[in-house]
Amino acid sequence: VENSSCKYMEHADSGGYETVCKQKYITRPALTMQNNELIEEQIQLPSSCCCHIRFRGNVATRFSPRE
């Protein structure tokens, strides 16, 4: 579901990361009726969802210091 957290990435929420699903679309031709005429138009159809990961935590704790 678009703008919800990614289903298979719950573990990313720990450690200051946040996941969000973004809908992807494909463009396909479609016939529509306008003024009793068939018109070909390009329409966008949902095709898949892509998981985006964002860091929302404290940058100072993101990387451990080298010893």
Describe the structure.
It is built from no helices and 2 strands. It has a two-stranded antiparallel sheet with strand order 1-2. The protein is mainly β. The chain has one domain. The chain starts with 16 loop residues before the first strand and ends in a 12-residue tail after the last strand. It has strands at residues 17-34, 37-55. Helix content is 0%, strand content 55%.
Layout of secondary structure:
Layout: E1 17-34, E2 37-55
Antiparallel strand pairs: 1-2
Protein name: Spaetzle domain-containing protein
Pfam families: Spaetzle (PF16077)
Domain Spaetzle: 2-53
Q: Which key terms come to mind for this protein?
A:
single chain, 67 residues, mainly beta, two-stranded antiparallel ribbon, 2 strands
Write down how many β-strands occur, each being a DSSP E stretch of 2 or more residues: 2
In N-to-C order, the SSE pattern is: EE
Radius of gyration: 21 Å
| SS content category | mainly beta
Q: What's the assembly state of these chains?
A: single chain
Mean pLDDT value: 82
Main beta sheet, described? 2 strands, antiparallel
Strand content: over 45%
Domain module tally: 1
Low-confidence stretches: none
Strand order of the largest sheet: 1-2
Shape: rod-shaped
Number of helices: 0
* Distance between the first and last residues' Cα: 43 Å
Helical proportion, percent range: under 10%
